[in-house]
Amino acid sequence: SRFPALCVLADSREVCSGPEVISCLRAEHGLRVQVCALGTSDYIVSTCLAVDRLLQSELQSPSNRNKLSQRLQRLQGSFQRICVIVETDRVRPGETSRFFQRTQHYDGMLSALVQAGIKILFSSCQKETAALLKDLALVEHRKGAAIQVPTEPEGHRRDILNFCLSIPNLSYSAALNLCHSFGSLAAMAN
Amino acid sequence: PVTAASIVVPYGHVIGNEKWRGSEVAQRLQGKVRLIFEDGLGLVDFHLSNGTCILLISEADLVAGDEFKRRLVRFRNASSLRGIVIVEKTPISDQYYLGVQKLVVLELGMVLLPVANQGEASQLIIQLVSFCVREQSRDRGANPFLRKQRAQLAEPAVLQTVQQIPGVGKTKALLLLQQFGSIHRLCNASINELEEVVGQTAAQQIYTF
């Protein structure tokens, strides 16, 4: 509640895969979380920063490599800064905690992320992930990149937002900014 | 001496701080990478090939207090090298991890990677070195996360975008683009020009949009 201006966009899939992250952001940290169909990333924390939440097992398994690289490459097309939060897998009830065997593949993936200039954070649960997202939002706010436009445009602005969203390599947050800065398409084009 | 200067690392080599000679990390690195020991590396533990270096924080450092934090801040202020901090995250030092992560990644803007022990640290360093070498040899395609610049056809994208205008489907979008050529010209078209291509209602809709 100390930072009423802080706003985070969450992808609609996160409602299922990370419900605790979203509710923690709202209830504990007092952030405004807007759920929308981002498609490209799990969270958008500012106009420049996109965050993807990865489970440790996803980074560990070689079969995920292609999917992950495509996803992050696409993100790099539309965001200046990218961060991944590597979250420890949840131990389901009845399951004894599995011993994490660090593989060469896992180290290789981390090295590749580092070399590509992608920020990496580690979290042990959804609650910690929420706290990290809040910290990231604060840092971005200090840099002056916070999302400050209304995130739910209506009527005509909604149409303009959809128009902007279809432009390749334009992020959701950039499209939001565009649709709020210009009243009409003609104004934007000129 | 608080040195964190850049030094020339021979291609494909790693230069290690003298203090690690004989340690578990060093023993496991030997044979896998070409490791040379040098005195007077100051704050840095290992220099990798291309302006990247490693600072190793042990479990004991974490538990002992804030000395390692001063070391990291001094490094950050003194050096323009890319610093990768590897920290020993064990059941004992786990409780400090979040605080360290906040300092290193969010405040200092450096890279932080946790390992469970010195053995894992050496495995990780080997992977980091191999990526450094590959990057130097300009084999950039090897990195799955580096974006390859590829020419993208604009036409299908423009067609998609034009279809977002209310009242415009695929057919009208094609007609409009044939007539006006670009989104910029389409936006500045008069209502009469639009009417020549699409009907009166659609022209009105496009014009007000």
Automatic annotation (TrEMBL), chain B:
Keywords: DNA damage, DNA repair. GO terms for biological process: interstrand cross-link repair. Residues 8-130 form the Fanconi anemia core complex-associated protein 24 pseudonuclease domain. InterPro entries: DisA/LigA_HHH, FAAP24, PND, RuvA_2-like. Residues 165-209 form the DisA/LigA helix-hairpin-helix motif domain. One of its GO terms (cellular component) is Fanconi anaemia nuclear complex. The keyword Electron transport does not apply. One of its GO terms (molecular function) is chromatin binding. This is FAP24 protein. It comes from Aleadryas rufinucha (rufous-naped whistler). The lineage of its organism: Eukaryota, Metazoa, Chordata, Craniata, Vertebrata. The gene is Faap24.
